[in-house]
Amino acid sequence: MIEATGLTKRYGKTVAVDDLSFSVAPGRVTGFLGPNGAGKSTTMRMVIGLDRPTRGRVTVNGQDYRALRHPLRTVGALLDAKWVHPNRSARSHLRWLARSNDLPAGRVDEVLDLVGLTEVAERRAGTFSLGMSQRLGIAGTLLGDPEVLLFDEPVNGLDPEGILWIRQFMHRLADEGRTVFVSSHLLSEMAQTAQDLVVIGRGRLIAQTGTEQFIQEATEGAVRVRSPQPERLRALLEGQGRVDTAEDGALVVHGVESSAIGELAAANGVTLHELSPQLGSLEQAFMQLTKESVEYHATQ
Ligand SMILES: Nc1ncnc2c1ncn2[C@@H]1O[C@H](COP(=O)(O)OP(=O)(O)OP(=O)(O)O)[C@@H](O)[C@H]1O
Which residues form the ABC transporter domain (predicted)? Predict the structure, then answer.
């Protein structure tokens, strides 16, 4: 369990994290979502004691990170996968990590196996692909068999196979009852990975909710309709819902069910070439909710 209360971090005049309160439950994958510069990395650094909050508090299993007796047995964090000595083998990197943190050396081969790196354990980490480096980084977080895991942008730059592997691995860790907190600005990825979301913009909390609920609440369902008689259809829909025109000329109808549009068209002899309900995407939900708080809006 991770709990932040009124968490705030200032760097000079920049307020990187602003009065942020949220909680991350065990047994689930919780996505930490926000555009670049929203304050995700700063928040994660405060969770693991690398940065001190200017105000507020964040606890792991009820305690400040710095007060934990065996931090790596409680929290594993991967904030930068390239943090590996390039000339060390994967195994010796993990052995060094285990030794310097008072963790049993016997755990090294277990975690190599868990992440599927046993066969390349003697290879120099500097020769690893990004996907393999991520696996090695994840192996490092698991050395202390911690209950809480933090991953900062773990799928950045990975190919689809690497992304799938990470996604499945996160689920496995959550199924084991661990708390899994994973940040990303890749919204569609989070929609598939996370069961719960903590969404921030400009350091502030925008939403804490289940992923499905977030999408449902933040996006208004719409129906795309193409017809050779668009103006006639538009007139029929007048007063029933809002009708926009897409770039390709299709009508985008808000507030009317697709079945009702189909029946209305049939009853009035209007031909339809397309009638497709548009499911709200996480991207739409996110844009809707962060409209005012996204940094890049101001600079566009
Ligand atoms: N050490 C620092 N000194 C000064 N400003 C900082 C520092 N670290 C972060 N910031 C600023 O704090 C804000 C939040 O940055 P942070 O890296 O936490 O965001 P993020 O959501 O992780 O973004 P990204 O996805 O780009 O990593 C940004 O405006 C950033 O420039």
Answer: 2-227
